[in-house]
Structure formats: structure tokens, C-alpha cells
Amino acid sequence: MKAFLSGAAFIGGRLLQALLVMLAILVIAFAVRQSLGDPLREIMGQAVPESERAELRRQLGLDAPWPVQLAGYLSRAATGDLGTSIIYKKPTVEVVLAKFPASFELVLGASLVVLLLAVPGGVYCAVRPQTFRARLILGLSVLGISVPVFLTGIFLITVFAVWLDWLPAFGRGQTIDLGVWQTGLLTRDGLAHLVLPALTLSSIMLPLFIRLVRGAMLDELGHDYVRTARAKGASPLRVWTVHALRNALLPLVAVGGLQVGTLIAYTLLTETVFQWPGMGFLFLEAVTRADIPLITTYLVLVGLLFVIVNTLVDLLSLALDPRVSLEGAR
Amino acid sequence: MSAGVREVNTRAFATFATARPGAVLAGIVLGLVALAAFFAPLIAPQDPFDLAGFDLLDAELPPIWQEGSDPRFMVGTDAQGRDLFSAILYGTRISLLVGLLAVAIQAALGVSLGLLAGYFGGRVDSLVTRLADIQLSLSTLMMAIIAMALVRAGLGGEALSRLAVPLLVIVIGLAEWPIFARTARAATLVETSKDYIRAARALGGSDLAIVHRHILPNILSPLVVIATTQVAGAIMAEAALSFLGLGMPVTKPSLGTLIRSGYDLMFAGTWWVTVLPGLMLIGLLISINVLGDALRDWLDPRARGR
What we know:
heterodimer; A: 330 residues; MetI-like fold; 2 strands; globular; disordered C terminus; B: 306 residues; mainly alpha
């Protein structure tokens, strides 16, 4: 019962913390809008006389003191209204969310590659550390850290799209509209377009995760329970995968959560190289054309994503291993 | 005595160098590149920042080993007729400058805060640790992108191009201080608990003198190792920002800007404007990382093989 209560308190505290962070992000977004953006330009453009501007400013409550305006911004944000885009003349939330599926599918593809390569690679490097192949994997991962993600992308395009002509290089290809979600995962063309960007994005996370899996596995293999399992007669493969790997993956969840921000940044770079029509591509367009409402909305939504993932990771670690998180919560 | 020490060190270094030929090669490459970048104004045949100095008629000339090249431009020209060799030299100079200055800020901020936290402990310690945790969870590259994007959207591309170098240094410099702070704090904690520090305190040494004269010299080697890899990280961050159009402007290209500006032409056949600065960037980053790895093994043999 006591454990349950402290668990509930932990979850409650974590959710409250998430709410506070979101509030802080919204206040910062408001401050950016106040100092950089002129809301009148969003509505009426530049060529309107000053007297009309002043009148409209009064009507819209833009001459009100800033705490009043902040309250207005926050209450509208709570209903999902973060303003109107200058470029697209549509609600910014709608504009940004329309690009979410593209970015999400890119990240999904990259995560799949990382998972399929980093886990076996890391385990191999941990159980056979002295072999040539293990050294090769680790050596390549140093190389991976040293090559900027956009150069990896350009290299892959040159080889696989230009020289070999196996895969398309730019855009998402053919997509299918599922109502709220435009997916490229259901067509051959869409999947082909996903291969190179996903490989590029994964190249930056792979080295880190191979090293993490290897380190965690090495730690676990030194524990007594591994020896016990072996003495009991379990096959090496079973000891590695069922016993050690399961425990080794726990810390990876937490570290993986910490990487969300980095992943968003690298997604932005990947989308630029491949002209992938995702959120990052949209953000850079908004920056070049100084669409302040669109920029701040992107930041708020990315912040929201960040908060959601981090909260989920914390709760997930609690579910996977109650000891760790509750100690951390105290 | 000092001669004896030096001799032992030289021999140890020689053994180490034969064991790590890659590190020696990396050191040589890095040394040459750094020299070339430092003396760029003397070596470069052209000033790549002086737009009046080049001619559009010279635009997109290939390197001399390809047909249609011009002997004046060893590795070709970009879309504006700028000599690519000069541009790469100056671009490397900017990359190294931004990288070193940004890491200087990171180190100054991080080491001071880490020393404070480790030496005084208590509230100062928990405050610094907490701040470092928050900052690290925010992803430095993303913060840098957001900061540069807001500057660009707020002040316009014109202002950005004038202030690019100091802005990049500050933004990248402020982003990663926790890496230094954590290491400095951990090393300070170890050092502070040793007897000689207690002795120095008992003798009435002031906190500042103890930290400056006793602790700092003793925690220096892990910090040097971090600084090396941080320089590589800062150079990569600068290149990424410039590639996104949020860093150095086309009028004052860094390696990232050159890669970006060449990328539009790359698949139309003008590959050199992207590929050559790209190779330079990768060579720079790999040599720094390899050197950093070797330096870690050299200064901290226990970490070897990790």
C-alpha cells in the first residue's frame, strides 16, 4: 500500500512538473511573439494607414497591459489556438500538425534501423570484445560520430540515388491520405523515399546506442546472476538475450528519452538535405520568411512533444523498475 | 632531475606513438590544417570575403584535374566565381575560431561552476547540478538552432550576417558548459577530500588560493580531454547551423556555408563546391576525435579500452 501511494505521488508529481514546464514554454513563446512579432501584420499586411492600425489595435485588445494579453494567449492556447500563420493564412497549429506525420514516419524509420542494428551490434561487442568484428563496429561508430549528419545524407544520395540509381533522393514520394494522417508507409514509392533519410538520421544515433548497449551489457555480464544462469546450464545465447539484455535495456529507455531534443535537431538537418516536407522543413521556411506565429507554434509543439516523451519515459522506467525511479523521486 | 623526468616522458611518448600511429597521423593532419588556417591571409591567392575581387565569368570552374578548368583556381570556383581553395582556407579558419572560442566559454563557465559546486558543496552544489541537468536535457544543438532562428527572424538576415561570428560563439559556448561543470565537480570532490587540501586549509590558505593553486592543476587532465572532443562538437554545431542557413552568411562562408551553397548545384555536376569543403570538415573532425581518444588513453590509462 505504501509503495502504491509513493508510486501515485511520483506519477502526480511528474504530471504536475510536466504542466509547469509547458506553462513556462508558453510564457516564453508569448514573450517572443511580443518582442518580435507584430500581430497586425498577420491580419492586415503592411500597407494600412496608422490611424486604422491604432483603431484595430484597440479593438483587438492589443493595447492592453501585457499580463492581460498573456492571460488571453494562455487561455486561447488551452483551446488549441496559437495564432494564425502569416505565410499560410491558416491556424498555425493546423499548419504544423499537418507536417507531423512526415517527421514522425522519418523518426520511426530511423528508430527501427537503430533498434535492429544497435542492439545486436552492441551485444556482439560486449560478448566478443576482442574480435576483429567488434573492433570494426566500434571503429566505424567513431567515424559515425565524426561525420556530420548532412554529409552522411549527401553521401548516401550520391551513391544510391545518383550513381546506382536504386533509390529516390528527394521528398516523400506517393502518400495516402488517411483522413488526419498522410502516410507514405503504405505505398512502395513512399517506402522507397523513406529509406535514405531514415538511414541518414539513424547514422547519428547508431554510434551512441551501440556504445550504450555495449556498456550496459558489459555491466550486466559481470553480475552474479549471469554466472548462476550459466552454471544452471542455460545456453550462452539464452543468458545473453533473456537474462542480461533484458536488464541492460532498462537504462537505455531513460537515456533514449534524453535524446529526444537531439533527435528533433537532427531530424531538422535530415529534412533539409532530403527536402522532406516535415515539421523541421516548415520551421526553416517560417524562419526565412519571419513568420513569428508559425515559429512560436512550432517551438510550443516541439516543447510539448519533448515534455510528453520525457514524462512517458519516467513513467515507463517506473513500470519497468520501481526501485530506480522512486529513489530518484525522493 | 628534471632532465631525467623529461627523458622518461619522451620515451613513454615514443612507445605510445608507435602503439597509436593513427593518433600521430591525426596530430600531423590537424597541425597542418591549423597552420594553413592561421596563415590563410598569406597562403590564399584571393580574399574570399571581398565580393568585388571575383568575377562571375569565373563561376563554377572545375578543379584543375578536370576538363575546362583554369590554372588560376587549383580546386575550382563556386557559383560566384570565388576561388574555392581560398574559401576553404578561410572557412576552416572560421570553423576553428568559432570552435575554440566557444569551447573557451564553455570551459570558463563550466569549470568555475564545477569548482564552486565541488569545493563548497551543499546548496551551491545542488543548484549547479540541477541547472546542469536541465541544460543537458534540452539538447544543445536544438537550443542553438532555436536561438539563431529567433535572432534571424527578429533582426533579419542582414543583422545576422554581421553578428554571425560572435553570436555563434556565444550560442554554442553557452550551450554545453554542463559537460565541463560535471567533470570539474567530480574531480574537485575527489581532490577536496584528500589530506593535502585539509593541510592547506589548516595552514590558513584562503579558499581562492587553495582552489587556484592546488585543486585546479590537479583536475586539469580530464578537462583537457573533454575540451578536445568539445572543440569537435562545437565545429560540428557551427557547420550544422551554417548548413541550415542559420550561421555564417554566403558573403563570409564557413565550411558549413560552402557545403550548403554548393549543395544546390551538386547534382547538376558542380560537385566540388560541396564535396571538397565536406572532406575538409570530416578530416578536421576525425583528426580531433582520434587525437582526443589518444589523449584520454595517454592522460588516463585506466579508461583505456572503454
